[in-house]
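To the structural biology subgroup,

Please find below the input and predicted structure for Phosphonate metabolism protein, which we are adding to the shared reference set this quarter. The sequence is reproduced verbatim from the submission form. If anyone notices a discrepancy with their own records, reply to this email rather than editing the shared folder directly, so we keep one authoritative version.
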Amino acid sequence: MTPHRVALYWTPPDASPLAEFAARWLGRDTLGRWVPPLRLGFDPAAWEAMTEAPRRYGFHATLKAPFRLAENASLEAVERAAEVLARQLSPLPLALTVEALGAFLALRPVDPPDALAALAGRCVEALDRFRAPLTEAEIAKRGPNLSPRQQEHLRRWGYPYVFDDFRLHLTLTGPLAEPIRADVLARLRAALTPLLPPTALLADLCLFIEPKPGEPLVLYRRIVLG
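Predicted structure (tokenized):
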């Protein structure tokens, strides 16, 4: 099997209340299956607009952003490298909260430990040898609003928000303008806060694939840490 792109994410266990809520909020689960949506009182058109972007990528936190496979690389080779990496990493407890990240809304860790950024950095580096370089058109499309350091990351690692610019987040909406952003934030906090455990355990690496260009990314395999 040769997918269009592969990615390394973290997503909570499928049977957890958090994952079940996220699947209903986005209208699909991490395996790409449609789920009857929970719109939290928003009309269908408004809900569709605010969840369109995160629905395609699934409920996740990015550790290694989606990338095309380099020539002579394979999904099986990426999977083996992820297995080796996972054995070297330890699970991390994270307390999560719903908050704004720029114009987006997302679940973010409260007081993230230093080990989290280190873990994400290991993921970026360990799989980069399997990544096909971005085209100049892709760099130009992504680059104009980035800082010089982020532009450098984009060219070197295929993604701007790595290392010092890494911020773990599980995206819940696309960009929202005020005042709708405050309204959505309040509704999501009211619905999600009772479902959040005191600590969520980042206990595995989740290999996602984009089977064909433009298709939703789906969970291919969970690889347990340690």
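Summary notes: The mean pLDDT is 95. The chain is about 35% helix and 20% strand.

Regards,
Lab coordination
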